Amino acid sequence: MSRSHRLFDLMQVLRRHRGTVPGLTLARELGVSLRTIRRDIVTLQAMGADIDGEPGVGYILQPGFLLPPLSFTEEEIQALVAGAQWVSRHTDDALAHAVQNALAKIGGVLPPDLRRGLDDNTFFVGRSEKGSSVVDLAQVRRAMREQRKISITYKDRSGAVSERTIWPIMLGFIDSQRFIAGWCELQGNFRIFQADHVMTVSFLDDHYPGNRRQLVKEWRAQEQHPCKQRDCG
Predict the structure, then answer these.
(1) Are residues 160 and 200 in the same domain?
(2) Residues 96 and 153 in one domain
């Protein structure tokens, strides 16, 4: 591996961990010595990377620094194409459009020999039949970003109909089904709602309290296998 690629990979590892990372962990992930990690950290700092830490403690990368762009590997290109196919064929139209735009932007900066990989037919991802639903998933994602409540009329598995106000925190795509995970004010707990069981939906102006990311952590801590609770409203 060239030194430039190693520096790039080191930046990627630091970004992925987000918190303080011991030097030994970095060395193990990159397959180099601890001494090499220390030298590379000094090099990145000299290039302007805001990396805090010291030997024996660990390192943390502060946001805002970008290395000059490097080319993708063929494996990375294939991973992007396969992921884009899945998003295009299993989510909703807005995300499908967004992922195609993203691939176009990537293609615009790739050298010609790698750009051809974006049109490679190595993988085939089948298209799933999406169930009918009154829920606009693009609107749900916006409500999640803005941490706004959603009011729904919901029919559970037994056929009982109820009015719910939920705090959407996550979307799930399993086979042909779409799920909304969130806090249910009626139940006073986290619940998973099947999108095609939603009879009516209103996106409210009210913000829900707390932080969406923290709510996701609380939900995952509460239920080790939350997807087993699908349609548990």
Answers:
(1) yes
(2) no
Secondary structure, 3-state, 73-124: CHHHHHHHHHHHHHHHHHCCHHHHHHHHHHHHHHHCCCCHHHHHHHHCCCCC
Query: What is the CATH classification number for the domain harbouring 184?
Result: 2.30.30
Domain membership of residue 96 as a residue range = 74-119
Same domain, 161 and 205: yes
**Per-residue confidence in pLDDT tens, the chain, 233 aa:** 567 778 888 888 888 887 889 999 999 999 999 999 999 999 988 888 888 887 778 999 887 766 555 567 778 888 888 888 888 888 888 888 888 888 887 787 777 777 777 877 777 777 766 666 889 999 999 999 999 999 999 999 899 999 999 999 999 988 778 999 999 999 999 999 999 999 999 999 999 998 999 999 999 888 765 444 445 55
Residue 25 carries which side chain, given as an amino acid letter? T
The pTM (predicted TM-score) of the whole model is: 0.62
**Could you tell me if 134 and 201 are in contact, meaning their C-beta atoms sit under 8 angstroms apart?**
yes
**Do 90 and 23 have their domain in common?**
no
Query: Does 85 reside within a domain?
Result: yes
Judge if 85 and 162 occupy the same domain: no
Residues 123, 205: Cα–Cα separation, whole Å: 42
178 DSSP β-pair partners: 173
Helix, strand and coil percent figures for the chain, each rounded to 5: 45, 25, 30
Residues 52 and 81 in one domain: no
Q: Determine the Cα–Cα distance for residues 190 and 183; give it in Å rounded to an integer.
A: 4
